[in-house]
Design goal:
heterodimer, A: alpha+beta, Alpha-Beta Plaits, 7 helices, globular, B: alpha+beta, eight-stranded antiparallel beta barrel, 9 strands
């Protein structure tokens, strides 16, 4: 399976909450109806960030902060099933209508192909419903001076430390960005998915102790810059 | 509280004979005199490591400088540092120390904090533990602070557990205090146990990528190391 992420901001002047509802209630169902080769489809809608205890200081990347209101995850059997619009949509008309509707409401739309590394998965999901708990997406880049290979290796080293440290999460997926498909995309090299069964798990057991925060801060300072870390409600629309 | 002592045979002594003397004669003397010992392990550096798979491009280790490595557990630092308390009397301490000095060269002791990352071994008192054990005195890269070195090793522990699937036991010992004047200023002592030589051969670096990720990580924090491939004798448990 090939996995894609699409990160979407609302157009200037759009009400963010209305945009999110439109994305979930109209855009996503249209995708499901007209994309016959879509194997799995997850939509994430922005939520307020909880106040995380012991939150360490993560090195931030410079540049524009984007407030993504929606993040879609799509899986296909082959890359062409997504890239080739003649294969993605069941008709040119449907494809054009979906594209135009999104362009009318969205601000920036960035899509990338990723390699998914599932480090932990103990999070239940029900097709068509909002998943329990909360999901954090971290959009990460590599620290200046690191090659892409070094950044990937460093994240791989980080993964078991994260599993050991972030005792509260129920799912942890490292998505390594392989290519950006949209021009002008920020230089995100990885998208981390951290999911918690409850908001309390995020608040109290993301960084359960100050020592947990310190070791994560030490490690990430060697390889990661954070572009954004945002919280989302997850909707698994097709399993 | 745990203490390591790194011991080399005196110049000119046969290492094998020294190791056998240590485990058969000296260690029993220590056990008899040091009544406060809670645990006592003697590691003889007498084992040939197998050719580890996928280790092709790593620089060869320096020769192992020690012939015997002991581990002692006591109730407090003073129970080790005060030779009279350790061996029961000054006369006992003189006897044990003279006994060792007659055959040993360099003797360096360290107080450590023991962090057991994994333990699936089944030690038996008085017997050689099956398999083999590597003991690795180590230093951080010179440019790192002690905190950064310790953090680097802590991060490493998690990837080591995931990667070195053949290990049956993994212990990180942080050196808190160098107890012997002039002893090498090691900052940590690693212990890796393998239940069989084949577990080390095939389970240390199960794939070329396993070696790549470990080499990448250790290059960030680990200085030169000397690997001691040992047989372990648990003399008190």
């Amino acid at each position: 399976m090939v996995k894609y992420f699409t990160l979407v901001t609302a157009a200037a002047g759009q009400d963010a909450a209305k945009f999110r509802q439109w994305f979930l209630r109209e855009h996503a169902p249209a995708m499901l109806r007209h994309c016959p080769r879509l194997r799995r489809f997850v939509v994430n809608l922005r939520e307020p960030a909880p106040a995380i205890e012991n939150m360490p200081r993560l090195e931030e990347a410079g540049g524009t902060r984007r407030r993504y209101q929606a993040a879609a995850q799509m899986w296909f059997d082959a890359a062409d099933d997504f890239i080739d619009h003649a294969r993605l949509y069941d008709s040119p008309t449907a494809g054009q209508a979906i594209g135009e509707a999104l362009a009318a409401r969205a601000g920036e739309v960035f899509t990338c192909r990723v390699t998914e590394n599932v480090e932990k998965d103990a999070h239940p999901e029900l097709a068509g419903e909002r998943s329990v708990g909360i999901k954090m997406l971290t959009l990460a880049g590599w620290k200046p001076g690191l090659t892409d290979r070094e950044g990937r290796l460093a994240w791989q080293v980080h993964a078991p430390l994260a599993l050991r440290t972030h005792t509260g999460f129920s799912r942890y997926i490292r998505n390594v960005v392989e290519e950006w498909l949209t021009p002008g995309a920020p230089d995100y090299r990885g998208i981390a998915e951290l999911q918690f069964l409850t908001v309390d798990d995020a608040i109290h057991r993301f960084f359960p102790t100050p020592a947990a925060a310190r070791i994560i801060e030490f490690d990430t300072a060697r390889w990661m810059v954070s572009y954004e870390g945002a919280y989302f409600a997850e909707y698994v629309l097709k399993k | 509280m745990k203490f390591f002592t790194l011991i080399s045979a005196a110049a000119g002594l046969d290492k094998r004979q020294f190791q056998q003397w240590f485990v058969r004669e000296h260690a029993p003397m220590v056990l008899e005199r040091a009544r406060g010992l809670k645990r006592y392990i003697v590691n003889l550096v007498d084992t040939q490591p197998p050719a580890v798979d996928n280790i092709g491009f790593v620089a060869p280790d320096a020769p192992a400088p020690y012939d015997v490595i002991t581990e002692m557990w006591l109730g407090s630092p003073l129970e080790f540092k005060d030779r009279t308390r350790l061996y029961g009397s000054a006369a006992n301490a003189d006897e044990v120390e003279k006994h060792l000095a007659a055959k040993a060269g360099q003797v360096s002791s360290y107080r450590v904090t023991e962090i057991i990352e994994k333990d699936r071994t089944v030690p038996r008192v008085g017997e050689r533990t099956s398999g083999l054990k590597t003991v690795i005195p180590l230093c951080w890269k010179p440019e790192l602070s002690d905190d950064d070195g310790r953090n680097g090793w802590q991060v490493h522990a998690a990837i080591a557990l995931r990667t070195h699937v053949g290990m049956s036991k993994y212990v990180r010992n942080l050196v808190e205090e160098v107890l012997t004047e002039g002893a090498p200023a090691y900052q940590g002592i690693g212990e890796l146990h393998f239940a069989a030589a084949a577990d080390m051969r095939y389970g240390m670096f199960p794939s070329p990528h396993a070696l790549e990720v470990i080499a990448f990580d250790t290059a960030r924090w680990l200085g030169p190391v000397a690997q001691h491939c040992c047989s372990e004798w648990v003399l008190k448990l």
